[in-house]
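Quick illustration, no need to memorize.
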Amino acid sequence: MKIRLKLGVLYNGTLHHDVLVKILTVGGECQALEVISDLGLSEKETLNTSEQMLVDLAYLAQQVEFDGIPREAVTPAFLLDNLATDDYVLINYAINQLRKKAHGRFGKPRDSKRNVKRRNVSEVWQAYENYRSATILLGKFGFTAQAVWEMCHAEISAWINSYLASQGAKNPT
């Protein structure tokens, strides 16, 4: 799936906005695991935030191809230094959409076109803002952005409610 990034990725003094996003393949996962091992992160018991993000970006690097950037230049360290958070979220959203399409093709029931609600830009932006806020809050518990992305709404709500209760916030009824 081709998408256009909002902020773009800087490479050799030029911003690149167009990216091909793909589903992670077995081969891509193997390559990501090799990169993680080469970075010395597979042997560590605990990872700091930057190291965990490098692990996440090792997988992401296998799922993206930027127009005008050689494949071998797209490493976890390159993405960590050059990919904006807003664009990271857009890429993950596109990957999620590809997963949903793949589920539809391979037997998981799909909504009929009549039942699918088309979302306007403000609804998508609000969902993005909610995701971003949840990611920041749940990061305090050690969750990565990718882990939050994979949570269902009920799980995110439960974590946020637990946090609010621990801070003495009253539950709105």
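Confidence is low (pLDDT under 50) at residues 106-118.
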